[in-house]
Structure formats: C-alpha cells, structure tokens
Design brief:
Elements: H1 18-34, H2 36-70, H3 76-80, H4 90-103, H5 126-141, H6 160-168
Helix pairs in contact: 1-2, 4-5, 4-6
Length: 176
C-alpha cells in the first residue's frame, strides 16, 4: 500500500557546487574591476526593481487578502476533492497545492482551488513555473520529465488543475 501523501518528503533544494560558486564570484569580480560602469548599471537596475516592488507589493497583498476572505474555511481537502483519487495520484495533489502556496508572491497562506489561474489569480510568473515550481513538484512526487512534449497537458498548464493533471500524466522517475 502506498504511503499517505501527508508523509511525502519536503522539497530539498540542490546546493550549487563549489567550483560553480567560485567561477561566479571570479567573473563578478573581474566585471567590477575591468568594467566598473557595469556596476553602475546593475545598481540602477536594482534600485528600479526595489522601487517597483515597493509600489506594487501593497496591491498584491490586497489581492491575496481578498482571496483569503472569499475562501475562508477552505483547505487542501476541498482542493483534493476536485480530483478522483483513483485516477490522480494523491502525492501530486498535495505537492502541487503545497508548492503553489510556497511560490505565491505573499507570505499569506492562501487557500488554492483547482480552477485558479496560475498567472492571473495566483499572480505567478511564467519563469516561476518553468524554472522552480515544476522542479520542486517533480522532486517531491518522483516524476520524470522524459517525454513531456507528448503529455496531453503540455503547453496547456494555466490552472492548478492542469498542473496536477500534467504531472499525473508524467511517468515515475527511475531510481538511479
């Protein structure tokens, strides 16, 4: 019998190798020494990003506060009820729910529904999905990305439901 999803391991980020970190710092130091104007450009960009965040974050927080009020009393249980556990792996349901909550651009624990749009309702960035979120879910559920182009949900992942179904159609990763 398969272990219950509540016992699924948490996501463990991979550590960067020491040679990669050393190479990064050597390149960064060389840029600062030989092209000091790059430092001014980087500082200018950083200031713009910080200013934009300070202006935009209150709107984001208000959006998620409103979602929390609308969804008061909802939990992972209501999210899971939207899937047939005989067809959809419960580990995938839990991993998607928990990793989506962790990826939200707010500290609030927002109840997620299967119909939530990843980019409009949950305000995630496409890069968040492509680079971080899918890796975290794949690791937690032991799913492989082999043959992802033939997955019927490939290119159609715009809701939490489709993200669950995408991973449900992926093969289990082979133990190496």
């Amino acid at each position: 019998m398969k272990q219950a999803s509540r016992f699924m391991p948490k996501y463990e980020p991979r550590r960067a190798s020491k040679p990669a970190l050393v190479a990064f710092f050597v390149i960064a130091l060389a840029v600062v020494i030989y092209q000091p104007w790059y430092l001014l450009v980087a500082a200018g960009i950083a200031i713009l990003v910080i200013a934009w965040s300070a202006i935009d974050q209150p709107k984001v927080e208000r959006h998620f506060q409103d979602l929390c009020k609308e969804r008061s009393g909802l939990s992972i249980c209501e999210f899971a009820k939207e899937f047939d556990p005989k067809v959809v792996d419960t580990w995938i349901i839990r991993a998607v729910y928990e990793q989506l909550q962790a990826a939200l651009p707010t500290k609030q624990r927002v109840p997620i529904t299967a119909s939530d749009g990843l980019f409009d309702t949950l305000m995630l960035d496409q890069d968040d999905l492509d680079l971080d979120l899918v890796e975290e879910i794949a690791q937690r559920t032991s799913r492989s990305f082999d043959g992802y182009e033939s997955n019927p949900y490939y290119g159609k992942v715009t809701t939490a439901r489709n993200l669950v179904l995408f991973f449900n159609h992926q093969a289990r990763a082979s133990a190496t």
